[in-house]
Amino acid sequence: MQEKSIDSIREYAWKRRATILGLSTASVVLLLRFLSELIFSTHFDKSNYIIICTTIVLICQLIYVKKTRFYETSLFYTLLFAFIFIYARASMTGGLTSPTMAWYPVVPIISSFLLPRSKTIIIGICSVIFIVFTSQFSLVHDLNLPATPLQDYSRVLVYISVTFICTVFCLFHEDQRKKMRVKLEEQRLSILSSARNTELGELAAGIAHEINNPLAVIKVKSKKIKALNSENKEVLDSIEKISAMAERINKIVKSMKNLSKNQVNQEKSNKENFEYIFENVLTLCETKMKYSNIQFQLINNVKNLDKYRIPIQLGHVLLNIINNAYDAVLIEETKWIKIFINTVDELLEIKISNSGKLIDEDKREKIFNPFYSDKDNRTGLGLSISKNNLSTLGGELKLLSDTEFTTFSITLPLKEH
């Protein structure tokens, strides 16, 4: 099954909304046009029947798209049908001299933004065919229908509509180009930080391995001392504390290994449920939260969250942001860190808020840059690596600007077990 990225999910949702908006607008405009002709025109042209028939078809397509999650097929056939409407309307209002001819090049433009390349090519070919067809075959002559040139206000309306639609789509194209340039820059930063990312993963795995060896010795010796001093209550209490601390160290080391195993080989994205990931993250940071009197709260608004498989690299991102939040709230009187989990358009959205001071406006754009940090003891790589890791997984990390407290947002595509 093909993985969906956050960009593809949002793009599909946008195109579906654009299709609904386009069909709604076209239906309303055509219906108003039909009513105005019916009310203000001295005689009712037969060409107006084309308008009302087209309006009915568009309304039916609109209902279908709104009731289903699929828009491509419906939009494709609607655009093909539009050629018939344009041909019939142009033939009865002047042929090649009719302003309605201006809609022929607009249809492929709409298709290029909302439909795949293959269907856009078909639409483009059909546009050329219908232009030739309109020049050679006229409904006025072949069916003996009366020709009625468009009124001046109708001509102006057609040209304004064509200009408006083309301008909107061209502006959207420019916006897409800007986003593409941003993505290229993010990929460049990803290359710069990937080597350091791998080094950090290998370092974490190496530390975990080195700690396990003496830890195993401590466990074995503790059991022997306990067996030799089974009657000494003071020694037994000390051994219990040593065993508890050793077990805690073992749990921390295990969490480090669990979260670092995906750093060494990033080509494979291991996935687990959220509870597994969060438990490992919590193990690594709960002690310092407790001793610093920081209220740590998870607010989950997603039912059956554990049925979704989530990349384990999310743990690295969460741990990094939580550690940053820990530093931010230490000097505050009210200390808390809250994690909110929601779903939006087949996307998992995790927001991490803290009671620390809001990030200054001039720093907001810099915090994701590699090696940028306002702390002397930090490398400035945490957020840039986290952002690039999520981007590689098809997700997104950003700092929200319209919130009362400092809030980072993590967005990932959802995938069930």
From TrEMBL:
EC number assigned by the record: 2.7.13.3
Transmembrane segments: 20-41, 47-65, 74-90, 96-115, 122-141, 153-172
A GO term, aspect molecular function: phosphorelay sensor kinase activity
Record's keyword terms, sorted: ATP-binding, Kinase, Membrane, Nucleotide-binding, Phosphoprotein, Transferase, Transmembrane, Transmembrane helix, Two-component regulatory system
PANTHER family the UniProt entry points to: C4-DICARBOXYLATE TRANSPORT SENSOR PROTEIN DCTB (PTHR43065:SF46), SENSOR HISTIDINE KINASE (PTHR43065)
Cleaved signal peptide residues: none
Pfam family for this entry, one: HATPase_c
Descriptive protein name: histidine kinase
Organism, scientific name: Halobacteriovorax marinus (strain ATCC BAA-682 / DSM 15412 / SJ) (Bacteriovorax marinus)
Domain Histidine kinase: 206-416
Source organism superkingdom: Bacteria
Chemical reaction(s) catalysed: ATP + protein L-histidine = ADP + protein N-phospho-L-histidine
SMART domains xrefs: HATPase_c, HisKA
